# Entry
Amino acid sequence: MIGFIVPARNEEENIKEVINSIVSTGVKVDDIFVINNASSDNTARIAVSSGAKVFECKKRGYQATLNEGLKTLISMNYSKFCIIDGDNEIKSDSLKSALSASEDFNFIIGKRPYVKRFGEKIVNYFISRRYGVDDLMCGLKLGDLKYYNPNNRLEYGIDLFDLKKIKEDKILNIDIRLNSRNDTRLGNVFKVNTLMLILLVRYFFSL
# Structure
């Protein structure tokens, strides 16, 4: 059984469309969990009115939000997770393709047609060569909950999953289509790129 995690912070303009997009693939709305990351707008209210379950994550940050979502799925006895970001960047046909392959693969991750941030490209290069996961920070991931690493400490999802276990199983890097989005949710580009490189070094030294 797959539980769907939608991490969202101030996504009142997108959250309804994201939920409807997931439902359009045949997913029951009862299996959609919006993890509201201390939003100051109407994200939570709109998500509830759209039929999704909403859980609050008061600690700010993408990693903290995903942790809250994954722990919630585990507590509710789901066997698989699907993460799809709340910014409506992932097109619904890409999610549908991932769901269609979920019976044949243990871990499925989207592969974006382009990655803007230099730091992210470097992270992807090393993670892909070592573990076969091509686009680690893509906003579409689907897999077995056994891969969740509850002891993760790094940001941007770098150590959110046990990549060693994933490497030993069936991985699918699936090409996805994106809706256009002009902004970035990560902040100053130079700082983000620098932090990603630091986190990559910390990750490999922690192995």
